[in-house]
Amino acid sequence: EGDTDYDDSFRNDSFQLSPASGEVWPNSEVEITATFTPSTATEIACVAFCDIAGKQNRFPVHLQGTGIGAKIVLSYNVIDIGEVFINSVSEYDVEIHNQGEIPAYYSLLPNDSLFGSKFSFDPAEGTLGVGQKTTGKVLFSSDVLGEFNEDFEWALQGSPKPLRISFRGKVIGPTFHLDEQTLDYKRVSVAFLNTRHFHLFNTADIPFRFHMRVPGDGTLLKREFEVVPSSGTILPHGKQKIQVDFIPLTTRAYNLQVVMDVEGVGEQMASVQIKAQSIVPEVTVSTYELDFGECFLRYSYRKVIELVNHSDLPAKFELQPQDEISRCVASYEVDYAKGTIEPFLSRTITVSFTTERLEKVQL
């Protein structure tokens, strides 16, 4: 077997000795230079042993040093955003200053929390020379309501302690108000259109989309309320007129609400109460029987009836059409089959009668 060379020269990642070997002449000395190159910002110590030819024991050389990492300072450690509107974009400037004696490389660590993901940083990483400054921009935009307190950290190369900044605040929905609390239609007639208005004011700095509806109202042909507009976008500090049309289909007392949903924020964020009492006005007819007496065959005779509205509300009337079977016996026509009778007024209806048979006729 051949001899194996054994190298016991000093090796260390943080300390270097130069020269590592050599000769010392009698009554002279040799200067050994120790170089400290720390890879982390911490205290480092080791022992180097010096072999002297002809001596049995080695003598130790203790090496010790403290590594100092990059020193970056932020212009703010905590930023209180306060209240911000949902979906709005807020921008903040943060100055980054390298106050250390070595170049500093920084890299933003991920924050995937609910609100942490709503922040973006530019730049998220970079290198600063000694004494160098840069301004980072922070953008925040949230589609989620609520309070937050988020910490963000940058890893600094060679330093175990990250750089930290905290943001706290509250995301709120758009602010607005309605100028009416109640739409009171009071007493209304069935089948008549009644209209009331209110206004929506956007007091926020952002636009928002709204939807108006009347829970409890019917659908399609049975719907009694129509909100105009039922949806839309209102601009910052804008004003929107809302019209509520009401056509009652039955007699009843109404106690409903117009509710407003704000898109992306929530349902029934505001409401206006609806009150009404629908009635059928009292209408009488001047006679319940028209006697045309003896009539010539197929000759038209005319008589009038009077419809009287005794109410302080308008009334609608509609005369039912004659069925086809009875037309074989006699026929009648009216000059107004339907219409409106104003309050405390009457309406005269002319009835034309023609007989088709030579016998007593009753319809």
Task: Give me some keywords for this one.
363 residues, mainly beta, five-stranded mixed sheet, 28 strands, 0% helix
Reading the helices and strands in chain order gives EEEEEEEEEEEEEEEEEEEEEEEEEEEE
Secondary structural class:
mainly beta
The amount of helix comes to: under 10%
What order do the strands of the largest sheet run in, or round the barrel if closed?
Answer: 6-13-12-8-10
Distance between the termini: 138 Å
Compute the number of strand runs: 28
Biggest sheet character? 5 strands, mixed
Summed over residues and divided by their number, the pLDDT gives a mean of 89
**Number of helical segments with 4 or more residues:** 0
Q: Sum up the overall morphology in one term.
A: rod-shaped
Q: Over all CA atoms, what is the radius of gyration?
A: 47 Å
Proportion of residues in β-strands = over 45%
Strand and helix layout:
Elements: E1 15-18, E2 33-36, E3 43-50, E4 59-66, E5 72-74, E6 78-85, E7 90-98, E8 104-108, E9 119-122, E10 125-128, E11 133-140, E12 146-156, E13 163-172, E14 176-178, E15 182-189, E16 194-202, E17 208-213, E18 225-228, E19 231-234, E20 239-246, E21 252-262, E22 266-279, E23 283-285, E24 301-309, E25 315-318, E26 330-334, E27 338-341, E28 346-355
Parallel strand pairs: 6-13, 15-22
Antiparallel strand pairs: 1-2, 3-4, 5-7, 7-11, 8-10, 8-12, 9-11, 12-13, 14-16, 16-20, 17-19, 17-21, 18-20, 21-22, 23-24, 24-28, 25-27, 26-28
Model description:
- It is rod-shaped and about 165 Å long.
- A five-stranded mixed beta sheet has the order 6-13-12-8-10, with no helix packed on it. The protein has a five-stranded mixed beta sheet with strand order 15-22-21-17-19, with no helix packed on it. Strands 5-7-11-9 form a four-stranded antiparallel beta sheet, with no helix packed on it.
- The relative contact order is 0.10.
- The protein is mainly β and 363 residues long.
